[in-house]
Design goal:
binds adenosine monophosphate, globular, GMP Synthetase, Chain A, domain 3, alpha/beta, binds coenzyme A, Rossmann fold, 5-stranded parallel sheet
Length: 666
């Protein structure tokens, strides 16, 4: 197969071009990956101690790894540090004060702003002073509910400066989800903005914040609120503090707020992620190990240099935003882009290329769904030649399976290596990837390549025995997990053990299934739990079922993820109504859709609710969600031997056909 470049010449695509490009990027040298991986395996503590030299410590560690501490051990025990110091102050002190730290580019509002490291220090120090005025101290929690604006990053760093712990909540979640998080982490202060802005609407935050605080049992004492000019905000007397006025006062006064030393093992943040119930899991990230791993990854995995521009087109509400919009690039001394927009529609499918040209982006990281959206809008890639993309060296994809069509389209149109890598909120950085900085390995499309140093990845059968190469199984990581991975769940050691460690003793269960080939390349095939991935967003079908089951007319329900050509997966809910319900079924279906949007939020993208007579079950009463999904996706399926009544599967197929839902029926 051959593709056309911007200049019109033909060029090969596929694994072939990847391999040659990757070789060119490393001056034709072989990758150092295998040597570095075995260096880590031979001496894990020595390896991470060496990488820790890239970080400023206030006090050195007693032990690189203390196996007796915490649930499975802790990294850099005894050390003291501060993540804000490493992300901001040390760069100013080391001569990077005038270098852009954050470039805010917001096609949705038409605004742009460049913030140097010196300016970042002033903003962060002033906001830290505001938080200190509100009584925030080391160890206190600060909840951040903000869209993609620079103040979201300032808020994270200001919290870290005080040694406090932030918890960022994504703007697409509804009040109930916000309340759940408030109740779990008990924030002393909430930092919010007046609104988020979506292409089709403004999203006012005040009604959601008010409703969440009303619902929550552990109410925060204060809210520091940034009023955006796009949307007014009426301050609640006694509760709300005006962000702009309070920060301005401290800037004027030149208030100094030193970085508070914390233990390397102290929490930097809590990030809630979907679990197998409606109760999200509070993933804890520590300070020391987090910085060490991210700093290493910027160089070895992403292959960028301090001072270069790194762009993660995600949201600060997700782990990608935490690690690679804020902390990774800033700890490393790179320039990060904070993009408030969408890959399409703000204003068109050329936005990404405009940003790359304008800010000279060296590496772009996004979810495959963003490229599917661009490809759908501009299949021929006509926007691409209009921009100078010569600064771009590589494209990194993660968050969901990178489908081969999208990978091939991206590499053909952009002419740079497209690097799939696999990770989770829990790990905070890649479990598997192709380390461009060490010299890229040949790409096998469909695989996120190989385990990163720090991760001993194995494939086990359900009984915990290793399976041969090429055989599908449970993907696990031998303990201990490397620096930056979660040491536990917030206030829930037992839940951490039961969710991740108990099923395969001695290993961390990723809850992904897949296989490893003869060359050690991993292939991630599916989740082993109820999690689905919608537009790169991780969602729990169990949580949606809990919401739907609360509808008074619903007797029982099942939510499955069905394949979607744009978002990867979409949730579809099957409802069995109570007998005697005589209202129009369509009315109830609409109510259920609204209920999920109101309770979980628009991000759930729950728009398909189908009333059915019965749900297919095993004789022991287990709903056959997997078989329903295969039918909806038009995949081959076998009649489960334990099915109670096979006719029900025909009924489900009939509803899908009639309603034109699922790849098998559209
Ligand atoms: N605040 C409020 N609402 C939000 C939101 C936010 N921060 N983010 C998304 N939503 C809303 C959307 O407006 C949409 O609402 P609608 O039902 O009224 O249209 C709904 O949540 C679903 O959002 P999404 O699934 O993202 O669909 P979309 O059509 O808005 O956008 C993409 C689709 C592919 C363009 C978008 O998902 C995207 O850019 N994804 C790639 C990058 C990414 O964010 N990855 C995440 C982790 S790396
Ligand atoms: P999150 O915690 O939101 O980052 O989601 C993590 C989950 O997304 C993983 O457990 C996988 O199921 C999926 N995922 C992330 N990256 C990839 C990838 N590169 N390939 C396949 N699945 C992925």
């Amino acid at each position: 197969m051959r593709g056309r470049s911007r200049t019109g010449e033909e060029r090969p695509v596929g694994n072939d071009i990847e391999w040659r490009k990757c070789r060119a990027m490393t001056n034709g040298e072989a990758s150092r990956y295998h040597a570095v991986y075995s260096e880590w395996k031979t001496d894990p503590e020595g390896f991470w101690a060496e990488q820790a030299r890239g970080i400023d410590w206030f006090r050195p560690w007693d032990r690189v790894f203390d196996p007796a501490a915490g649930v499975y051990g802790r990294w850099f025990a005894g050390a003291e540090c501060n993540t804000c110091h490493n992300s901001v102050d040390r760069h100013v002190a080391n001569g990077r004060g005038d270098q852009p730290a954050i470039i805010y580019d917001s096609p949705i509002t038409g605004k742009k702003r460049t913030i140097t490291y010196a300016e970042l220090k002033r903003e962060v120090e002033a906001l830290a002073a505001v938080l200190r005025d509100q009584g925030v101290e080391k160890g206190d929690r600060v909840l951040i509910y903000m869209p993609m604006i620079p103040e979201a990053a300032f808020a994270m760093l200001a919290t870290a400066r005080l040694g406090a712990v932030h918890s960022v909540v994504f703007g697409g979640f509804a009040a109930h989800e916000l309340a759940t998080r408030i109740d779990d982490c008990h924030p002393k202060v909430v930092i919010a903005a007046s609104c988020g802005i979506e292409p089709n609407r403004q999203v006012p935050y005040k009604p959601m914040l008010d409703a969440a605080i009303e619902m929550a049992e552990n109410k925060p004492a204060k809210c520091v609120v940034l009023e955006r000019e796009e949307h007014p905000y009426e301050l609640e007397p006694g509760r709300d503090v005006d962000y702009a006025a309070a920060v301005w006062a401290h800037m004027e006064a030149g208030t100094e707020v030193p970085c508070v030393p914390v233990a390397a093992t102290d929490p930097l943040y809590i990030l809630y992620t979907s679990g197998t119930t409606g109760q999200p899991k509070g993933v804890v990230r520590d300070n020391g190990g987090h910085m060490v791993a991210l700093n290493w990854s910027m160089d070895a995995l992403y292959g960028v240099k301090p001072g270069e521009v790194f762009w993660a087109a995600s949201d600060v509400g997700w782990v990608v935003g935490h690690s690679y919009i804020v902390y990774g690039p800033l700890v490393y001394g790179a320039t990060t882009i904070l993009f408030e927009g969408k890959p399409v529609g703000t204003p068109d499918a050329g936005t990404f290329w405009r940003v790359i040209e304008e800010h000279k982006v060296a590496a772009l990281f996004t979810a495959p769904t963003a490229f599917r959206a661009i490809k759908k809008e501009d299949p021929a890639g006509d926007f691409i030649p209009r921009y100078d993309l010569s600064s771009l060296r590589s494209l990194f994809l993660a968050g969901e399976r990178a489908d081969p069509d999208t990978v091939k389209w991206a590499q053909q149109k952009l002419g740079v290596p497209v690097i799939d890598h696999w990770w989770q909120t829990e790990t905070g950085w890649a479990i598997a990837g192709n380390p461009v900085g060490l010299g890229a390995l040949p790409i096998k499309i469909g695989s996120p390549t190989v385990a990163m140093p720090g991760y001993d990845v194995q494939i086990l059968d359900d009984e915990g025995h290793p399976v041969p190469a090429g055989t599908l199984g449970n993907i696990v990581v031998k303990l201990p997990l490397p620096p930056s991975c979660l040491p536990t769940l917030w206030n829930a050691d037992e839940r951490f053990r039961s969710a991740y460690l108990d099923e395969f003793p001695g290993y961390y269960k990723t809850a992904d299934a897949g296989y490893m080939d003869e060359d050690g390349y991993l292939f991630i095939m599916s989740r082993t739990d109820d999690i689905i991935n919608v537009a790169g967003h991780r969602l729990s079908t169990g949580a949606m079922e809990e919401v739907i089951a609360a509808h008074p007319d619903v007797a029982e329900c099942a939510v499955i993820g069905i394949a979607d050509s744009l978002k990867g997966q979409l949730p579809a809910g099957f409802l069995v109504l109570n007998s005697g319900v005589d209202r129009p079924v369509e009315e109830i279906e609409k109510e259920v859709v609204k209920l999920v949007r109101d309770e979980i939020g628009p991000v759930a993208a729950f728009k398909i609710a189908l009333a059915v007579k019965r749900l297919p079950k095993t004789r022991s009463g287990k709903i056959l969600r997997g078989t329903m999904q295969k039918i909806a996706d038009g995949q081959e399926w076998k009649m489960p031997a334990t099915i109670d009544d096979p006719a029900i599967l025909d009924e489900i197929g009939e509803v899908l056909r009639r309603r034109k839902v699922g790849q098998g029926f559209i």
